[in-house]
Amino acid sequence: MTGIRNIVILTGAGISAESGIDTFRSAGGLWENHRVEDVATPEAFARDPHLVQRFYDMRRAAIQEKLPNPAHFALARLDAEWKGGLLVVTQNVDDLHERAGSRRLLHMHGEHLKAWCTLCDIRHPWRGPLAGNPPCPSCGAHALRPDVVWFGEMPYRMGEIYAALREVDLFVSIGTSGAVYPAAGFVQNAVELGAQTLELNLEASQGSHMFHESRLGPASEVVTAWVEEILGA
Ligand code: APR
């Protein structure tokens, strides 16, 4: 890979799988007999807020027990050592990229460790449960929700993402099934702009055919090897 200056990396649940966080489309995607899609929508929250808050409380508690794996650390090393442009766009709502040391990072689907007051619109760092309907630390309203993007909602920071994609020389997709748009369409944007594209995933994803190259294997191995390669090139 020559002539690469600007890199955009999209990560999904697969990069956190070896840290012990379930991917979305593994194991039938069921939680207490609810399809995950049925608790991750604004409609579900309107219908049964307590159920949705319990689901996110459980996941918020769980991620705090997990640790970054070698794939997260490899991307943090790339962030520290890559002199050109770099942006990691994660669909993940865990904080494992940050804990590994990544800085040039954005969360397009929000963050588990933040609560969003739907009344005063302020987002607060949040580690505990929301199911008890605690007050907003800013305005006191009992209107906090997880700061995660649900199905049917607009992902965050799309302007910044498309700006980075307009300049990209190499687009890399890691650990994502390519099932959820708009993220699944980023490879198409990159190809149309003449960038090289690389997929690093456990298995061929729905969008594999759109990439110039696919390398299959666990993220801890394929991401680490690719970072070694690009930094050594
Ligand atoms: N290493 C690399 N890839 C892996 C590993 C691993 N150890 N384990 C699993 N994978 C791959 C799977 O093969 C799959 O292709 O990671 C991908 C995970 O896909 P999904 O579970 O669909 O997760 P993701 O693509 O991140 O989901 C996108 O959907 O539910 C919504 O908002 C949610 O951000 C999420 C979005």
Give me the secondary-structure category: alpha/beta
| Helix percentage | 25-40%
Shape: elongated
The share of residues in extended strands comes to: 15-25%
Rg value? 18 Å
Bound molecules: adenosine-5-diphosphoribose
Give me the oligomer status: single chain
Strands side by side in the biggest sheet: 5-4-1-9-10-11
Low-pLDDT parts are none
Give a short account of the largest sheet.
Answer: 6 strands, parallel
Overall pLDDT score: 94
Order of helices and strands: EHEEHHHHEHEEEEHEHEEH
Query: What count of helical segments does DSSP give?
Result: 9
- Work out the number of β strands: 11
The separation of the N and C termini measures: 8 Å
Summarize it.
Helices cover 33% and strands 21% of the residues. It is an alpha/beta fold and 233 residues long. It has a six-stranded parallel β-sheet, sandwiched between helices. A three-stranded antiparallel β-sheet has the order 7-6-8. Strands 2-3 form a two-stranded antiparallel sheet.
